[in-house]
Specification:
Number of helices: 1
Number of strands: 7
CATH architecture of one domain: Sandwich
Helix content: under 10%
Shape: elongated
Structural class: mainly beta
Largest sheet: 4 strands, antiparallel
Order of helices and strands: HEEEEEEE
CATH class of one domain: Mainly Beta
Strand content: 25-35%
Length: 145
């Protein structure tokens, strides 16, 4: 029989020790990420205007050929991959913060859009999308008779 000490989460006296144990164990066990796992996630802004939804995504370092955009049944999906630069002979990597790999972000759009009129531009690492609303989704004023 094993006895396990339980931390009382109502007081945070055990939290510093828990973090200390985590840091001690960090790096002891290798992590094997699958090739298609999500390694990073871009920052996204979504806003609604009277006529459209507008999306801005920060995608620094990506080529537009490595970005996929789709809309299906009111779900907007952005996919892409930022590839790691090949290490050159004689170079040593001392510190790396930038993330590499694939990402996939999906957003539910509250109403129908004109998918044939979606406009996408990519400049200076920022993807801008304009998704025009379908006529039945646009707000309209109703006159009282």
């Amino acid at each position: 029989m094993y006895l396990v000490k339980r931390n009382n989460w109502n007081n945070y006296n055990g939290l510093p020790r828990l973090l200390e144990r985590f840091m001690e164990d960090f790096g002891k066990y290798p992590v094997d990420f699958e090739e298609d796992s999500v390694a990073w996630s871009p920052r996204i802004d979504v806003k609604e205007t009277k006529d459209a939804y507008e999306v801005m995504a920060d995608l620094p370092g990506l080529k537009k050929e490595n970005i996929e955009i789709s809309v299906h049944e009111n779900v907007l999906t952005l996919k892409g991959e930022r590839k790691h630069e090949e290490k050159k002979e004689g170079e040593n990597e001392y510190y790396m913060e930038r993330s590499y790999g694939s990402f996939c972000r999906s957003f539910q759009i509250p109403s129908k859009v004109k998918s044939e009129e979606i406009n996408a531009t990519y400049k200076d690492g920022v993807l801008q999308l304009r998704l025009p609303k379908a006529e039945e989704a646009k707000p309209r004023e109703i006159q009282i008779k």
